[in-house]
């Protein structure tokens, strides 16, 4: 990703490399994961998401963000590159929202109530610097039935006390019927812990 958005190589080289990439991806044969299939290596919800665009070590799109418990919430650490650029030299606002949305979802799962985002309000206080280690934080601030309120923030590792982006979100834990309908590949819903291991 970084190489493709940085290069200033001439067009003929780009064409040659494109052919090479097509040859390589052509070798990714065999069974392909179906749309709603949960990868066998995943622990869903609240654990490994190998191909997540935010945390997935197996995704070329992800920074990736590494998530660990932290006090009453969860912390995510990552560095955005120029593939994630919005204003020149700074992160895209959608990337910030995506990092926060994902980590706020992890905070729900860590608090024992995995949920999906129904509302996310993001405030951009300062631009997010690229190629700079970031610290994302999220914690559950309250629950009301299936509704979970969550706060989140992004700061730099160098200056963790200054939040450059903050967010407030509402997440909802789908009821068991809705969970089964949305995620047919989950075993033992509600709250099914792991993808089918037989694949
Ligand atoms: C095992 C469980 C699995 C969980 C999955 C974890 C995935 C983690 C992946 C994380 C990935 C990262 C994160 C992502 O990317 S998540 C992806 C982005 N989000 C979505 O796609 C969610 C789309 N929404 C839905 O599918 C439904 O709304 C769901 C299924 C979530 C709830 O539909 P359901 O029919 O079940 O619920 P309900 O309509 O009875 O509402 C329930 C309550 O919520 C209140 N309400 C509703 N909307 C709002 C609102 N905007 N502000 C404030 N409150 C709101 C509503 O008034 C009611 O309250 P009350 O009247 O009872 O007081």
Automatic annotation (TrEMBL):
Could you mention a single GO BP entry for this protein? fatty acid metabolic process
Species lineage: Bacteria, Bacillati, Actinomycetota, Actinomycetes, Kitasatosporales
The protein's name: Acyl-coenzyme A thioesterase THEM4
Cell location: Cell projection, Ruffle membrane; Cytoplasm; Membrane
Main location as per UniProt: membrane
From what organism does this protein derive?
A: Streptomyces aurantiogriseus
Similarity comment: family membership: Belongs to the THEM4/THEM5 thioesterase family.
One annotated GO molecular function is:
hydrolase activity
Q: Write down the chemical reaction(s) this protein catalyses.
A: dodecanoyl-CoA + H2O = dodecanoate + CoA + H(+); hexadecanoyl-CoA + H2O = hexadecanoate + CoA + H(+); (5Z,8Z,11Z,14Z)-eicosatetraenoyl-CoA + H2O = (5Z,8Z,11Z,14Z)-eicosatetraenoate + CoA + H(+); octanoyl-CoA + H2O = octanoate + CoA + H(+)
Q: Which InterPro entries match?
A: HotDog_dom_sf, THEM4/THEM5_acyl-CoA_thioest, Thioestr_dom
């Amino acid at each position: 990703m970084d190489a493709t958005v940085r290069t200033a190589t001439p067009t003929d080289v780009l064409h040659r490399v494109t052919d090479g990439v097509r040859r390589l991806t052509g070798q990714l044969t065999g069974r392909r994961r179906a749309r709603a299939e949960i990868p066998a290596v995943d622990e869903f919800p609240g654990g490994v998401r190998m191909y997540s665009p935010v945390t997935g070590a197996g995704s070329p799109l992800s920074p990736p963000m590494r998530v660990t418990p932290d006090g009453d919430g969860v912390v995510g650490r990552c560095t955005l590159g120029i593939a994630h650029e919005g204003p020149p030299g700074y992160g895209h606002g959608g990337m910030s929202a995506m990092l926060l949305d994902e980590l706020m979802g992890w905070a729900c799962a860590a608090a024992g109530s995995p949920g999906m985002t129904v509302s996310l309000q993001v405030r951009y206080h300062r631009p997010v610097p690229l190629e700079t280690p970031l610290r994302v934080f999220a914690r559950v601030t309250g629950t009301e039935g299936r509704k979970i309120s969550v706060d989140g923030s992004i700061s730099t590792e160098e200056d963790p006390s200054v939040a450059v982006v903050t967010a407030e979100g509402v997440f909802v834990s789908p009821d068991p019927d809705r969970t089964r309908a949305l995620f047919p590949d989950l075993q033992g819903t509600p709250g099914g812990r792991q993808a089918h291991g037989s694949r």
